[in-house]
Structures are given as C-alpha cells and as structure tokens.
Amino acid sequence: MDSDRQVLSSEKVHLFFTAIRMAKQKNKKSEKTERSSGGGADFSLTALKEKLISYACRYDFLLLGIILYLAYNFCTGFGWISGDVFPASILPIALLKNHNVYFDFVASSISNPDISYAFPFVNGHYVSFFPIVTPVLVTPVYAASYILSALAGVTSPNNMYIIAKCAASFLAALAGVLIYLTGKEIFTRRIALLTTFIFAFATSTWSISSQALWQQGTVELLLIALIYLAVKNERQSSAAYIFLMGILSALFVFNRPPESILLIPVLVYIVWYQREKIPWYLAGGVLAGLPFLYYNYSIFGNAFGGYAENLALFTVNTGFIGHYLGLLFSPNVGLFVYCPVLLLSIAGMYFVWKGRVSPIRTLVLAAVPAILLDILLYSFFGPWSSSAEFCYGLRFLTGLVPVLCLFTGFFLDEWFGHGKARHQSQKKPAVIALVAALVIVSVGIQFVGTFFYGWSSTSNKSMTDERAWNATDSVIIRSYTEGSPRIAGIFWFTLPPVPPLVYFPITGG
C-alpha cells in the first residue's frame, strides 16, 4: 500500500509539473502570436503611410491644384468690379440658359454708363465688345456650379460674381499646375515648387488673373500649356501634342489678338524641330479657330471682332521710349515695381543662353524677342498707362508672367538646383538673402492688391501718364491705407455659390 501511495504521489507531481510546462508553452505561443499580430499592425501602418506618400508624389500636381484653387478663393467680397470683365462673367449664363451669345436678357443691368461700353448694340442685339474665348472656356465651370446648386438645393445672392470669381481661380490654379509640371521636367522638384509659388503668389497672377475673368488669365494658361506640350513632345514625340498646340494657338490668337506676338517661340519650335508635323498643327488651329472667326465676322464683320476699333489707338511716335520704360519701371504701372522678384528672370535669360542647346532651350530663348516685341507693341498704345486703370498693377503684361517665371526658375536652378555645385562660394548666402527679400516683398505687394485694392478709392481713378510716374501717389500704399479700414473681413467662397463657408472678421472693418 505504501509503495502504491508513493507511486501515485510521484505521478501527481509529474502531472503537476507537466501542466506548468504546458501552461508556460501556451503563454509563450500567445505572446508570440500577440507580438506577431502587433507587428502586422505596425507593418500595415507603415505600408499605409508609404502608400499615401507614394500617391502624394504621384498625384502631387492634383494636390497642388486643389491647394492653389482653395487659396485663390479667399477674398474680401465684391466691393468693386471692372466693366471689362462683365461680358465674360455673364456670357456663360447666356450660353447655358438662352443658347446664344446675346445679352438682351440683362439689358436693364448693362445700361449702366460705367459698363455699357462693354456691350455694343449690333444688329438688334447687345453683344460683347471683348473676345469671347475666355467665357466659352469657363462655361463648363458655370454648368458644374448650376448642377451642384440644384443637387444641394441652395441659392445665393450675387451668385454670378461668386461663380466668375471661382472660374478665374480655377484658370489661375490650372496655370500654376502647368508651371509646376513644366518645371519638374526642366528643374529639380524643389525648384519647380519654388517657381510655382512665385508664379502663384508673387506676381499679378494672384492680384489680377485669379480675381476676375480677365483675358490675361487665359493668356497665361494657354501660354504655359503650349510650353508644357512642347516639353512633353520632347520626352515622347507625338502628333497629338502638336495637334493640341495648334488648337491652343488658335484660342490664344482669338482670346487676345495683340498677344499673338507671344506665339513666336511656339512657331519657332514647330518650324525648326517639328516641320513634318506642321499639317497637324495647322489642322488643330483651323478646327479651334474657325468658330471664333465666324463669330467675329458674323457679328462685327471683321476678323478681330470689337477689338478692331482699338487698332486706331496704336500710333508710332517718339513717346514710345518713355512708355516702354514706364511699362517696366514706373511707380504705379511698372511690371518690376509690382513684381520685383521677376528681376531674377533677366539673369535667368543669361543662364539659358549660355546653357547647352536643346529644343526646349531654343523655344524659351525665342521667347525673349517675343517679350521685347510685346512690350514694344504696348508702348505704341496711346493709353498705355490705362493698363492700371481698372486693376491693380500692369494688366497688359500679365500674359508674360509664365515665361518670366520660367526664366526665374532657370536662375534658381542654376544657383540652388542642378548647377549649385558651381556656386558653392561665399556669395551664395547673399544670393539666398536677395531671393528671399524679393519673394517676400513681391508676395506682400500682391497680398495688398488681392485683399485691399478693390476697397480703396484709387481703384476708381483713371491712370494718367503723369500719375503713372508719380511716386508720391503710390497705388500700392493707398490701396493698403485706404482699403484696409473698409473691409469687413476675409471670405472664402467655393462652388456651388453658397454663402461663404469661412469668414474671418476684421475688427474695425
């Protein structure tokens, strides 16, 4: 019996320790499983993060476009609007609702003497004095707004102004995206981003093109689109790119005939490097140009529409020298006064000229004489200073901004991008300080124009040649001192044209 009890006790002890070992093994497996599952979670989070970064890099242009569009839609309301942009703001409504190009349905509104000049009465109808390319191009934006408004069941007073503002923001943002995509093909990504920032917020793109449906905003968009297509064609040659360039060139001509000079570099590129595809270019031009040519002849009886009467304002005389300098450097009109950062483009031209010959560099270099000729053309325009009569700064030369920004990008790339190894010297900090100062000052000037100009009394004054050179009566300074106390706050509009989604009140406004 005793021996049996001892055997039984030893078996119990053995079973006890076996149970402990099994429990320990189970705990280890459980811990291992938990660690494994936890590691899987870490791996999933890491993979998700990497995927998001990958998508952000792949669709960086889309993200940039959204940011620019949202940023451009911040404004101080609609305290003032020029009669020059009224036809472009209303015509999409006529196209969508009445299916014609007449403004008879708003006859009472356009009888106002301040804007009636923009709506001549021709063959029994009120029509637009200005070319209609811009309003035709933004009509889909208006259509999208109406559809979204219907789906959301919302209406808003003054919705025409909001839609027009958002359409202008859309065109400016799209131009910014194309500047970035073009810059990425030529410069480093960092330089492309900096160049895009300068284009978007340190030039008249912000204070003019994104604020209303000026023709110059479309000039900017079409010009950088043409350059981008040329760059893409050099990466992978295609007749489709040349065909699209023909379409855009025709739109460019009929949108603002005087700016046709800026097509010189495009024509140089086509004739010099794409001679065998000239038929494709011409086909695109004819396809896009015929409808607008027909419109001009059927309404006005000439190829240039209402603009034909402006030809009499171009006169050749010795005064053009002062006008030329004034367009660039006068205190209240000068391009480099409102956008001083673009002075860097002059140095950029030098770097392009001394660089290796390539089709794109040839195209960009060919833009230099086109720029000089464009400025010369407006120096022959009698009321040259009227460029700043209805807007903040030099509107006539805003179409040059994309090319000047690209030249600025070449300067930045030479010092801080591909060519930075050649400039590792004590001078580099000075260049950094110079660039930073020019960017900050330019952004500040454009900020004043974007948010304060419309509310200052100076916006309603005519710009004479004398005032253009009068540094003591600065439009920039008066816009801030007179405009800032009058605004109630900063609004953020978007489509559909609902009441502002964001409103920042300003004390004392």
Q: Would you mind describing this structure in some detail?
A:
The chain has one domain (69-505). The chain has 19 helices and five strands. The protein has helices at residues 2-58, 60-72, 86-98, 133-152, 159-186, 189-201, 204-209, 215-235, 239-255, 264-273, 278-300, 320-329, 335-338, 344-354, 359-379, 401-416, 427-451, 465-468, 475-483; strands at 74-75, 121-122, 125-126, 489-492, 502-505. Strands 1-4-5 form a three-stranded antiparallel sheet. It has a two-stranded antiparallel sheet with strand order 2-3. A hairpin with a 2-residue loop joins strand 2 and strand 3. Helix 3 packs across helix 4 (133-152), helix 5 (159-186) runs parallel beside helix 8 and helix 6 (189-201) runs antiparallel to helix 16. The radius of gyration is 31 Å and the shape is globular. The termini are far apart. Mean pLDDT is 86; it is low at 1-9. The chain crosses the membrane at residues 61-81, 126-148, 160-179, 214-231, 238-258, 278-295, 307-329, 335-353, 360-381, 393-412, 432-455. Keywords: Membrane, Transmembrane, Transmembrane helix.
**What portion of residues belong to β-strands?**
under 5%
User: What string gives the helices and strands in order?
Assistant: HHEHEEHHHHHHHHHHHHHHHHEE
Enumerate the spans where pLDDT stays under 50 for 5 or more consecutive residues: 1-9
Mean of residue pLDDT?
86
What is the number of helical segments per DSSP (H or I, 4+ residues)?
19
Helix-strand blueprint:
Blueprint: H1 2-58, H2 60-72, E1 74-75, H3 86-98, E2 121-122, E3 125-126, H4 133-152, H5 159-186, H6 189-201, H7 204-209, H8 215-235, H9 239-255, H10 264-273, H11 278-300, H12 320-329, H13 335-338, H14 344-354, H15 359-379, H16 401-416, H17 427-451, H18 465-468, H19 475-483, E4 489-492, E5 502-505
Antiparallel strand pairs: 1-4, 2-3, 4-5
Helix pairs in contact: 2-5, 3-4, 4-5, 5-6, 5-8, 6-16, 8-9, 8-15, 9-11, 10-15, 12-15, 14-16, 17-19
